[in-house]
Amino acid sequence: xxxxxxxxxxxxxxxxxxxxxxxxxxxxxxxxxxxxxxxxxxxxxxxxxxxxxxxxxxxxxxxxxxxxxxxxxxxxxxxxxxxxxxxxxxxxxxxxxxxxxxxxxxxxxxxxxxxxxxxxxxxxxxxxxxxxxxxxxxxxxxxxxxxxxxxxxxxxxxxxxxxxxxxxxxxxxxxxxxxxxxxxxxxxxxxxxxxxxxxxxxxxxxxxxxxxxxxxxxxxxxxxxxxxxxxxxxxxxxxxxxxxxxxxxxxxxxxxxxxxxxxxxxxxxxxxxxxxxxxxxxxxxxxxxxxxxxxxxxxxxxxxxxxxxxxxxxxxxxxxxxxxxxxxxxxxxxxxxxxxxxxxxxxxxxxxxxxxxxxxxxxxxxxxxxxxxxxxxxxxxxxxxxxxxxxxxxxxxxxxxxxxxxxxxxxxxxxxxxxxxxxxxxxxxxxxxxxxxxxxxxxxxxxxxxxxxxxxxxxxxxxxxxxxxxxxxxxxxxxxxxxxxxxx
Length: 488
Ligand code: NAD
Hints:
The longest helix is centred in the middle third of the chain and has 17 residues, at about 155-170. By secondary structure, the protein is of the alpha/beta class. It folds into two domains: about 10-345, Isopropylmalate Dehydrogenase (3-Layer(aba) Sandwich), CATH 3.40.718.10; about 380-480, Alpha-Beta Plaits (2-Layer Sandwich). It has a ten-stranded mixed β-sheet with strand order 2-1-3-12-11-4-5-10-8-9, sandwiched between helices. A six-stranded antiparallel β-sheet has the order 17-16-18-15-19-20. It has helices spanning about 25-35, 50-55, 65-70, 90-100, 155-170, 190-200, 215-225, 235-250, 285-300, 300-315, 335-345, 395-405, 450-465; strands at about 10-15, 40-45, 75, 105-110, 125-130, 140, 145-150, 175-180, 210-215, 230-235, 255-260, 265-270, 320, 335, 380-390, 410-420, 420-425, 435-440, 470-475, 480. Helix 10 crosses helix 11. Bound molecules: nicotinamide-adenine-dinucleotide. Nicotinamide-adenine-dinucleotide binds near residues 82, 268, 274 and 287. Nicotinamide-adenine-dinucleotide binds near residues 80, 272 and 277.
């Protein structure tokens, strides 16, 4: 049985962080396994997480660590503990955005009958947009009663992750790419993601494609995950559903992930630092190990990736299990973290007999497909403005009457909404109103509005004692409204 690697590839520099909680234990196990398998790595270690936060670095990572990451461009990261409260920023979100890691690849595979699952045929890869959506982190308190979080979906961001999903599917011999959106409600933001999906799908006639509204799509995923193959979706839906997928496949402790950007990539388990079992040699290192396998594929070390993954599958198949996946029916031996790692190392060179062996020899690295820029800039015309007011002095009709009387010039008050529902003119008395009002002013039909007219309108509104908390300009792009219609 072959146990010794003959790999001669040059050592590839990578950055490693041991993290917090169970992080050091599972990182040590992971590195032991991949090095025993012949991974050719020049490891540079950085400190991230709790201790760095406690030194007062609000991102959880010193600038020297950023330098290391930018130099090696590959980051194998153990989970970290984000201290509660105190205005600390999420290291993960910061790393993903700062390094432009736009695609988060999360495979969820069931290992039936060796790991308990109700979905024995599940083999789904979730590709989550990683930088945008509600995770732009732009939130405001606007009035006494109302808080806002901006959902940003961009054309280049959508193009990058959706193209990545199709290229990933093609390269990995997958058959179908599914898109989840909520564009029946968010017609502009999720509508854009859906539109870009349809455009890019047309370039891949060899792959099936389909789009689901995320609520029913999520229900189907939880019920019959075997009907899905690759799923691409905006950030928040991807965050939630990739955990669901990992859990129903068997355990969140088994899932690894790759965060891919144009220059850099980060690989980590999807679970957290599990502080309650830290330091007890109990944690399952499989999520981080499978992330490291994705890293080896990314680095082009296909043979090592294949050896590690197959030895891991054989270990699972032999019933050598950590406590989290141990069950009387299919497990034979309950082991701790380091014993599990030793069991995988012992099986290097072996392949599973029941579970499907992997072979990365025919797979290309998770390299980058950046082919944007075919979008023609649209003709943009200002046609009005939404003025948001903080106001609690009366009814919608009072506000409509007052505002109508202050308006002069080409911009006319057309409608007032509260939490998006029309309350003036002709609102229903039953509609609940907060202190947060959107007042839509439009120019005359077909007339272009000058930005200075918006400023004059605001000046007039201020002079009348109103409290405008923000404005949103209303544009037509190539004649199509770039703003949502009013409900009600
Ligand atoms: P968690 O994933 O750490 O733990 C959830 C449950 O799963 C716990 O019962 C835990 O014991 C178990 N578990 C997780 N990983 C396991 C493993 N490898 N082996 C065996 N059991 C495992 O989630 P949490 O408790 O919500 O978060 C703990 C900390 O982790 C928090 O500070 C959170 O901010 C952080 N976190 C970090 C990351 C990351 O660094 N990528 C991700 C999520 C959470």
